[in-house]
Amino acid sequence: MGCFHSVSNKSKVGPCRTNIFSDVQATIDQSPTVIEEYSPIVLRYRTPYFRANAQVIMPPIRRKETWTVGWIQACDYMKFINQYGTLGCSSWEIPALKSGRIPAVSDSDGVSYPWYGNTTEIATIVGPTDSYRRMNLTMNDNFYPSVTWDIPVSEGTNAHLTRIVRDQSFITWLAAVNETTKDIIVLKTVRWNFYLEIDIDPTRELGQRARIVAPRAQKQPLVTNGPGQIPISALVRPSANNAQTLIWRPTENQPIVVVPAK
Fold first, then answer.
1. pLDDT value of position 12
2. In the prediction, which pLDDT does 106 show?
3. What's the domain of life for this entry (predicted)?
4. Which of 10, 83, 141, 151 has its CA 20 to 30 Å from the CA of residue 220?
């Protein structure tokens, strides 16, 4: 990736934060998380969607340059623990984020850095242009993971899973990027969190084991105006999916890396 950097608002020609109009709506669906207990090997759950919609009006671009406007997302906190009674727990972790070495990790699709996606999430304008351009940009995000009933270092199908706790925070920026200079203009910032607790009774029959204990509904996102800076780690590889590691922490022995980062 090139070197991205924020841009000042001194320029009177072409796009700057003060002459790009943007309006953002962001919500988390009020539908509950759905638990799926169909498999004897894994429990799955499907969470409500985070959704963001932006209306953007770009001013004329006087120079021969290309601008991309769209969504950039990063995870800045992650706690994802699966408890297996007194045997231990597994945890999905991003080591650089957990240690504080980086403030956030890119949540790109793993291809379209720094963008969250490359379809409805972005729009590109090639200058010069002599008129205002209107764009509608949308994105959505949810989780649909699988958690093994048995401890992750076992090849068995015995149910030992007793609790799932997931707590993640995200920052989602609506940004305009000059593709030539790599200048970034932050238009809006959305902060949102997803929290979930599931209790499991592994002695019960499949289909009757798990229940959601918190929360009944997710907190709604907070939208704020720019300006702002995006950490470099939120713009470049690796993505959160590729950076995370699954670690098994048995009660009486040393931790074991079950799934290393890609």
1. 45
2. 98
3. Eukaryota
4. 83
Both tokens assigned to 108: 């790109």
Q: Say if residue 199 is exposed, middle or buried (CB neighbours under 10 Å; 0-12, 13-18, 19+).
A: middle
Residue 13: per-residue pLDDT: 53
3-state secondary structure (DSSP) of residue 178? strand
Q: Which amino acid is at 126?
A: V
Cis geometry, peptide bond prior to residue 114 (ω within 30 degrees of 0): yes
Q: Which residue has the tokens 């072409």?
A: 14
Query: Which stretch of DSSP H or E encloses residue 84?
Result: strand 66-84
**At CB < 8 A and 24+ separation, what contacts does 210-217 make?**
210/35, 210/37, 210/43, 210/45, 211/35, 212/32, 212/33, 212/35, 216/32, 217/30, 217/32
pLDDT, residue 103, reads 98
Per-residue burial over 51-82, b if 16 or more Cβ lie within 10 Å, else e, is bbebebebbbbeeebebbbbbbbbbbebebeb
Q: Which two tokens stand for residue 224?
A: 């704020």
Q: What single-letter DSSP state applies at residue 47? A: P
Q: What is the pLDDT of residue 10?
A: 39
CA angle 184, 188, 194 (to 5 degrees): 115
- Residue ranges in the chain modelled with pLDDT below 70: 1-14
Give the list of residues 6+ apart from residue 119 with CB closer than 8 angstroms, or none: none
